[in-house]
Write a structure and sequence with these properties.
The complex is a heterodimer of chains A (115) and B (111).
Chain A (H helix, E strand, L loop, with lengths): L4 E3 L2 E4 L5 E6 L6 E7 L6 E7 L2 E4 L8 E4 L6 E5 L8 E8 L9 E2 L3 E5 L1
Parallel strand pairs in A: 2-11
Antiparallel strand pairs in A: 1-3, 3-8, 4-5, 4-9, 5-6, 7-8, 9-10, 9-11
Chain B lengths: L3 E4 L2 E5 L4 E7 L5 E7 L5 E7 L5 E4 L2 E5 L5 E6 L8 E8 L7 E2 L3 E6 L1
Parallel strand pairs in B: 2-11
Antiparallel strand pairs in B: 1-3, 3-8, 4-5, 4-9, 6-7, 7-8, 9-10, 9-11
Classes of the chains: A mainly beta (115), B mainly beta (111).
């Protein structure tokens, strides 16, 4: 069964350092999402791509976060500089357009710890 | 503004007991989805409800969307230890808007 791939699975970094996460969605899925999940809370959407275009980044802290999906396939989320409050699980999800576009498939996530 | 509450935050049951979690909105929703996240895992899609008064069943799970499209529930009959996890509702205010997740209900099942 096809899955969303993410790497790394765990990342420990010091504050003020740069960190990057990678996501490879299910093949053929045009829509890609990056979520942040703080322990004990639901996922919060950071950015949504349709192919290579950003369709929603209203909750992305753009002073330190950036995301790209240059060829409309895999995607990278970057944080620079990392802050203590960025410690969380970063989840990538993807969804298809046909036959339905609503079911989101999540990857295993990257757990970030900022020290 | 939009206010959706998911209750309860935690639920502890004995195996075999029933379980229900609710999502209640102050405004009408376009649709609602339910996801399950096992401890240490990632969210897994369960169902989407779109129509007013819609009821869907998946084995021991029953999902409802209220007539006014402001409330939804997930009911599990005769819980099993495999049901352990956090159940999230996710909603859209309009069909094209972002999916927003609730705080989740963490279910523990004592064998």
């Amino acid at each position: 069964e096809a899955e969303v791939a993410q790497s790394p699975r765990y990342k420990i970094t010091e504050k003020s350092q740069a960190v990057a996460f990678w996501c490879d969605p299910i093949s053929g899925h045009a829509t890609l999402y990056w979520y942040r999940q703080i322990l004990g809370q639901g996922p919060e959407l950071l950015v949504q791509f349709q192919d290579e275009s950003v369709v929603d980044d209203s909750q992305l802290p753009k002073d330190r976060f950036s995301a790209e999906r240059l060829k409309g396939v895999d995607s990278t989320l970057k944080i620079q500089p990392a802050e203590l409050g960025d410690s969380a699980m970063y989840l990538c999800a993807s969804s298809s357009t046909f036959p339905s576009s609503y079911e989101q498939y999540f990857g295993p996530g990257t757990r970030l710890t900022v020290t | 503004g939009q206010q959706v509450m998911q209750i309860p935050q935690y639920q502890h049951v004995q195996e075999g007991e029933d379980f229900t979690t609710y999502c209640n909105s102050s405004t009408t929703l376009s649709n609602i989805q339910w996801y399950k996240q096992r401890p240490g895992g990632h969210p897994v899609f369960l169902i989407q409800l779109v129509k007013s008064g819609e009821v869907k069943k998946q084995k021991r799970l029953t999902f409802q969307f209220g007539e006014a499209k402001k409330n939804s529930s997930l009911h599990i009959t005769a819980t099993q230890t495999t049901d352990v996890g956090t159940y999230f509702c996710g909603w859209k205010e309009t069909s094209g808007s972002r999916l927003t997740f609730g705080e989740g209900t963490q279910l523990t099942v004592n064998p």
